[in-house]
Amino acid sequence: MKIPALLVLALAAPLLFAASPAIALFNGHDLTGWVQRGGKAEYSVEAGEIVGRSVANTPNSFLCTEKTYGDFALEFEFKVDPTLNSGVQFRSEVFGHDTEFTTPDGKILKIAAGRVHGYQLEIDVDPKKDRWWTAGVYDEARRGWLYPGQSGGEAPAFTVQGRTLSRADGWNHVRIEAVGPSIRTWLNGEPRAAFTDTVTRRGFIALQVHSIGKDSSQAGAPVRWRNLLLTALEPAAKAPATTDTATR
User: Fold this and answer.
1) What is the architecture of the domain spanning 5-235?
2) Average pLDDT per run of 10 along the chain, which is 248 residues long?
3) For the chain, what are the domain ranges?
4) What CA–CA distances, in Å, run from 241 to 135, 138, 176?
């Protein structure tokens, strides 16, 4: 598949930064350092993997890091039941009270207390849906699809590439780079999303199990994560710090 030239150039251009040693976000034994928010999906540790299992009649569930991260590269592997939608939040937030979020174009959105929101790397390998948007970026509980969407990318081409790269029944490798306003993703070694966004520059990482609504036939569907490694990155020329425009 031919990838648009501008995307190739954006992903090929090196970012200048200093990297710290990689750290493991998961100790391989238990969920120390993580906290569950949102719904009541079941999270456990099995054979050195974090496993999330869907539960009916509960909203989206998120297993969140207790720590927050700003500029970083995050790599991990996932394997998911193809019928289950999932994702990995990054630079995400949650507040203990209702807030308002102002979009870059001036629209005011309301975010409920306890609602996890922020950037999400999509996990989408459902052959029946045939969308294949893994490593696209969705703005959870805020603006919706950023890439492909309002920040770039062509949906049909993104689907074709995703169909080629994705392993519906096996392990997939993902990389996320968030450095200053630049956000870039890779799936199984190939570039996927590349865009800039200044809305939120720091937040937690979270593993999502999407709501299945009342569909009990999907209850227990698993998504697995392993080898979650994060490398802190510091841009050579830092952009001016910005803050989330939510009213706290």
Assistant:
1) Sandwich (2.60)
2) 39 58 97 98 98 97 98 98 95 96 92 97 96 98 97 98 97 98 98 97 98 93 98 70 40
3) 5-235
4) 26, 23, 20
